[in-house]
Design goal:
Helices cover 38% and strands 12% of the residues. It has helices at 11-21, 67-78, 109-127, 163-167, 178-198, 212-217, 230-233, 235-247, 282-293, 310-313, 330-347, 365-375, 385-389, 393-400, 414-420, 432-445; strands at residues 38-40, 43-45, 49-51, 83-90, 102-103, 134-140, 202-205, 252-260, 298-303, 352-355, 380-383. α2 (67-78) runs parallel beside α3, α3 crosses α5 and α15 (414-420) packs across α16. The longest helix has 21 residues, at 178-198. The model has no long low-confidence stretch (mean pLDDT 98). The protein binds flavin mononucleotide (FMN). Flavin mononucleotide binds at residues 52-55, 87-88, 138, 206, 208, 256, 302, 314, 356-360, 383-386, 415-416, 419, 425.
Length: 446
């Protein structure tokens, strides 16, 4: 069905559209279910709303949170969500996605601890002394999307017939070796230890969006110990969980996972071998089962590639400049993401599942989130872009039962455009005094 922009004045109109499209978008007026606390291991998240990891590309050159990073997390914590999932943070310099990506190491750790403490204090000041969100720090290696200095420096786990061509990666570029992957485990372990010392409740071994671990999951064509069989492709992730759990049993190990890449086999993960447009979750669900046995209680479900298939990753009204207009209606993308989380929850009811892809629903996201949680299709629902635009969304939704339509994300892709232009990212339309000039400067330079 043809793409169109959001134009709905009521929830009913939106549901009629979903009906026309033949997709299932549940909704209910009563959002009180979102105010229920939930336990993740022995930690309590005070409500069912989450803020997804959202990179601002605004750390210092040595990887510490900087002024705008701190501002962002103070705003997020004041907003009262039950779970704050801190953004992609590199475990090694060469795996940074941009020269301002956060990087956790012994030297930068005190700044992360200060960030967390300041955010939690701001959250208490705004929401009451009892407010204590569950906190996760996302650890990453950007793999083929590494750009630690000023130009791309891809580190690939396997050659990819589609992405290599788009990215200009030559066929003879060597793969990251098995020995390098073995050593990388130690860096993840160091970062997990530091995150624990900083006071985070959990870490996320980022396994999505085609960064390194996500690419490894699809390394069908890779030789050696980390490629080919399911066991080999999932080795790095499973080994990391095993080692971190053994050393840091108090630290929650979570995984943000692409359960569907939308990318053709033999380079895709969670896809039908015949047709990448069709999800096949048999391997992702098997992996989540293994992770659960290894002690992972929390899965954040996501999909697609933000550079190559952004409509799968984040349904939008407008793409970045020069980007394609998808064939599908954004509601189909939203419904797909809801269904993917539902499939994970159905297969693994005892895993806490966070759902993704709700920003396009604007002021109606709360009604849909409530119905999803009430039906047990996900335990928490997060906002990514929506949290840039409207960091207080959780408090408004929980206290008033509605969101202010003037404050919601309009999925205009300006936040992504800033990233593409190598600026510091945030909401251009609704946080204009900070991000308007950054956006304009980025556009002038590119
Ligand atoms: C500017 C920007 C930065 C992002 N940074 C991260 C990140 O650090 N880690 C991650 O897993 N996803 C990241 N994402 C993806 C979002 O967390 C989220 O999955 C996506 O935007 C879809 O959710 P939404 O519809 O609520 O925006 C980012 C997305 C955008 C637009």
């Amino acid at each position: 069905m043809a793409h169109e922009r959001f134009h709905f004045h009521s929830l009913e109109e939106l549901l009629v559209k979903a009906g026309e499209l033949g997709v299932e978008i549940p909704a209910q007026e009563d959002v009180s279910v979102l105010a229920q606390a939930i336990y993740i291991g022995k930690h309590r998240a005070p409500n069912r709303l989450a803020i997804h990891p959202m990179e601002g590309c605004d750390g210092t050159s040595d990887g510490r949170p900087d002024e705008l990073t701190i501002r962002r997390y103070l705003r997020f914590a004041r907003g009262g969500a039950g779970l704050l999932w801190f953004e992609a943070t590199a475990v090694v310099a060469e795996g940074r996605a941009n020269p301002r990506q956060l990087w956790l190491n012994r030297a930068t750790a005190p700044a992360f601890r200060a960030l967390l403490e300041q955010a939690l204090a701001a959250g208490r000041a705004a929401n009451g002394a009892d407010y204590r969100p569950f906190t996760v720090l996302q650890l990453t290696h950007s793999g083929r999307y590494s750009r630690p200095v000023d130009k791309p420096a891809p580190i690939i786990a396997h050659h990819d017939g589609v992405l290599d061509q788009i990215m200009g990666i030559p066929p003879d570029q060597p793969l990251i070796s098995d020995e390098e992957l073995d050593r990388l485990q130690d860096h993840y372990l160091d970062a997990a230890r530091l995150a624990y010392e900083c006071g985070f409740d959990g870490i996320d071994l980022k396994s999505c969006h085609r960064y390194l671990i996500s690419e490894l999951l699809a390394a069908h064509t890779r030789p050696g110990r980390y490629g080919g069989s399911f066991e080999n492709r999932t080795r790095l992730l499973c080994e990391l969980v095993r080692r971190i759990r053994a050393e840091l049993p108090e630290l929650v190990v979570a995984v943000r996972m692409n359960v569907y890449d939308g990318h053709p086999y033999p380079w895709g993960w969670g896809v039908s071998r015949e047709d990448p447009a069709i999800p096949d979750l048999s391997e992702p669900l098997r992996l989540i089962g293994l992770l659960k046995e290894l002690g992972v209680p929390l899965i954040n479900v996501t999909a697609g590639n933000p550079y190559f298939t952004p409509h799968i990753n984040r349904p939008f009204d407008r793409n970045v400049i020069g980007g394609y207009t998808p064939e599908e209606h954004p509601l189909q993308g939203v419904a797909r993401l809801i269904d993917l989380a539902r499939q994970v929850k159905a297969a693994h009811p005892d895993v806490v599942v966070v759902g993704t892809g709700y920003s396009w629903l604007r002021q109606f996201m709360g009604q849909v989130a409530a119905a999803v949680v009430a039906r047990g299709w996900a335990d928490l629902v997060g906002l990514g872009r929506g949290a840039f635009a409207y960091p207080d969304f959780a408090r408004d939704l929980l206290s008033q039962g509605t969101l202010d339509p003037r404050k919601v994300c309009i999925t205009c892709s300006s936040c992504t455009q800033i990233m593409r232009d190598h600026g510091r990212s945030g909401c251009v339309p609704l946080d204009r005094h900070v991000y308007g000039p950054i956006y304009a400067a980025g556009r002038r330079a590119h």
